[in-house]
Write a structure and sequence with these properties.
By secondary structure, the chain is an all-alpha fold. The chain contains 2 helices and no strands.
Length: 84
């Protein structure tokens, strides 16, 4: 490598040395408020999702306990009478 910095490095050094653009006065407060809203919305959606999942699990347990889908349906034909 030669001792002369390349063009990209010189451009980056020029950008880092300044002058820096003026930042609007309410930018930090606005960003903090937006971040707070996003966190509250995400937290509310997560709680809603857990509530829906819990309600679905309870509904499934109630349905399964009432209908008993694992039991064999009653036969319409009685077995032949043996032993008489």
């Amino acid at each position: 490598m030669s001792g002369v910095p390349d063009r990209k490095e010189a451009q980056i050094r020029h950008l880092l040395e300044g002058p820096y653009p003026v930042v609007p006065a309410g930018l930090a407060a606005g960003a903090a408020a937006r971040g707070d809203r996003l966190l509250r919305r995400r937290r509310a959606l997560r709680r809603f999702g857990w509530a829906v999942l819990f309600a679905a699990a309870v509904a499934f347990v109630v349905w399964a306990s009432l209908t008993r889908p694992w039991a064999a349906p009653p036969s319409g034909v009685s077995p032949p009478l043996q032993g008489w």
